[in-house]
C-alpha cells in the first residue's frame, strides 16, 4: 500500500507510530512500576502494542515505496537506515507489554511466593523502563531524520543566508 486517498501512505502511517510508541512506552512503564495502574492499563497497552507491531512494518514498507519516488540524499539514507530499526523497536515494546501482562496474570493468581513476585516485578520494571525509554528515543531519532530529509532547506532561512 503506497498511497491512501492520493497521499503517500508512509506520511499518514508515521503519525500513528509517533503517537503509539510513546503511548505504549508510558503504558508499559506505568504498568510495570505501579500495580494499581497495571490493573487498568495492562490490557489496553497490550492491544496498542499489538497494533504497533502490525503497523510498523506497514509504515516501513510504505516508506520504502516513497523512497523510490523522491531524490536520494544523505539525509534520506540516514532516515531509511534509522527507520529500518523500527520493526525491532515495536517488537521490543510488544515483548515488554507481554512481560508486564504475564506479571499481571501471575500476580493476580496469587500462586507464586511474594519474594518471587517482587523479583519478577523488579526485572519487569527494569526491562520496561529500558525498552520504553529506548523506543521513545529511537522514534524521535527516526522522526527527526525524516523531518530533516523532507524539510531541510525548504522552510525558514534559505541555505547560505544569515538569519
- Spatially, the strands of the biggest sheet line up as 1-2
Structural class: mainly alpha
Rounded average pLDDT: 90
Tell me the number of structural domains. Answer: 1
Q: From the alpha-carbon coordinates, what is the Rg to the nearest angstrom? A: 19 Å
Q: How many runs of DSSP E, i.e. beta strands?
A: 2
Q: What is the makeup of the main sheet?
A: 2 strands, antiparallel
In one word, what is the shape?
A: elongated
DSSP helix count?
5
- Low-confidence segments: none
What is the terminal separation in angstroms? Answer: 41 Å
Q: In a few lines, what is going on in this structure?
A:
The chain crosses the membrane at residues 12-34, 85-106, 118-140. Helix content is 80%, strand content 2%.
Main attributes?
mainly alpha, 163 residues, two-stranded antiparallel sheet
Characterization of this structure:
Keywords: Membrane, Transmembrane, Transmembrane helix. The chain is an all-alpha fold and 163 residues long. The protein has one domain. 80% of the residues lie in helices and 2% in strands. It is built from five helices and two strands; from the N terminus they run ββααααα. It has a two-stranded antiparallel ribbon with strand order 1-2. Strand 1 and strand 2 (7-8) form a beta hairpin. Helix 1 (9-33) packs parallel to helix 4 (86-109) and helix 1 runs antiparallel to helix 5 (114-151). The N and C termini lie far apart (41 Å). The model has no long low-confidence stretch (mean pLDDT 90).
Amino acid at each position: 500500500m503506497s498511497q491512501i486517498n492520493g497521499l503517500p501512505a508512509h506520511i499518514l502511517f508515521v503519525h500513528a507510530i509517533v503517537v503509539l510508541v510513546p503511548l505504549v512506552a508510558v503504558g508499559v512503564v506505568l504498568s510495570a512500576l505501579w500495580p494499581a495502574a497495571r490493573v487498568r492499563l495492562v490490557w489496553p497497552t497490550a492491544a496498542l502494542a499489538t497494533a504497533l507491531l502490525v503497523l510498523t512494518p506497514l509504515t516501513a514498507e510504505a516508506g520504502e515505496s516513497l523512497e523510490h519516488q523522491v531524490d536520494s540524499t544523505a539525509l534520506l539514507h540516514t532516515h531509511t537506515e534509522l527507520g529500518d530499526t523500527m520493526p525491532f523497536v515495536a517488537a521490543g515494546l510488544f515483548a515488554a507489554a507481554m512481560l508486564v501482562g504475564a506479571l499481571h496474570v501471575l500476580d493476580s493468581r496469587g500462586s507464586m511466593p511474594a519474594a518471587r513476585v517482587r523479583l519478577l516485578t523488579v526485572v519487569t520494571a527494569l526491562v520496561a523502563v529500558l525498552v520504553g525509554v529506548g523506543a521513545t528515543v529511537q522514534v524521535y531519532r527516526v522522526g527527526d531524520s525524516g523531518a530533516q530529509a523532507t524539510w531541510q532547506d525548504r522552510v525558514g532561512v534559505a541555505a547560505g543566508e544569515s538569519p
